[in-house]
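Example record

Each entry pairs one chain with its bound ligand, FNR.
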Amino acid sequence: MEALTLAELAAQARERLDPSVWDFIEGGAGEERTLAGNRAAFDRTWLRPAVLTASVPRLATTILGREWAAPVGVAPLAYHTLVHPDGELATVRAAGAAGLPVVVSTFAGREFDELAEASAAPLWLQVYCFRDRDVTRALVERAARAGFEALVVTVDAPRLGRRLRDERNGFRLPPGVRPANLPDGDYDSPSGHARTEFDPGLGWEVVDWLRGLAGLPILVKGVLGATDAERALAAGVDGIVVSNHGGRQLDGAPPTLDVLPEVAAAVSGKVPVLLDGGVRRGADVVAARALGADAVLVGRPVLHGLAAGAESGVARVLEILRDELVDVMALAGIEDLGGIGPDVVVTGGRAP
Ligand code: FNR
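Structure tokens for the complex follow.
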């Protein structure tokens, strides 16, 4: 039966996936407090309608000079090939058809060239910085050659957070699931690989270094407060992603929606602000816009769609979000995204 909500698609995905793969996708770090907090923050955020303001919602927005059909993109997720052999190819096809961008992971399971050929919408590269800078350099140059339009450097992962579900399951990548754009190496254990290969000593100078590699706009992913937002601006970034890595890094980091207003105030419109973590409904997109995000990125639901129905499953995820967004905006009396101000949001009530 066709899923009507992202929760239903998640249930379909769970039925199809090996339990250890499901745990790898769903899990967070530590006791998963931050993972739960991301959702709880949306669940205690309510939307106040403006009544008797007939509206036909317009969803399109422009980010870094490119039009997005809606303020929604796909967050970087390692190894789409873990849940379906088409992997990222299916994802970029579905997103491209919907006019929405994809942030492709350093650990994508399909090659950048074939993704660029298959996509009709912007592709950005998510960058992990390795101890061996030549590996990162080659990765960035490969994406730039393929026509990727921006770099999103993940700054919350000097190593991977402890994912207890994966430790208990002894999770290893199955044979055949490997990063398609990195040199050969030992990728069996994602956390083990990160521990030996990620650069734990990264500083803000990485922004200039990355810009020098390909001249692409640089966004930082993993900012959770005004101070780091100001440092990012001082380092010359072109955009900020408010993210706690879907609760997979520092357990105890705040829910992204809760810190969004202070980041947005510090950035004050100088560069785009994106948010990820727990976005599961059209109403969540409106709440994030109201509290200062230009757009959101969606993570796990994309893998659910891919597992449940390959390219058409991902298309369904994006369609559900889009339809819900239209519905919420129409019912809340919001004509276009610019009309979503802080007064739309009511907080503090009890979550259902
Ligand atoms: C991720 N995330 C992630 N982030 C990143 O910068 N590079 C990566 O390779 C990955 N890989 C990855 C794999 C899986 C299975 C998950 C669930 C997450 C984090 C991701 O980009 C994003 O921050 C969160 O997933 C957003 O939260 P939601 O939408 O999943 O709640």
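The first strand starts at residue 45 and ends at 47.
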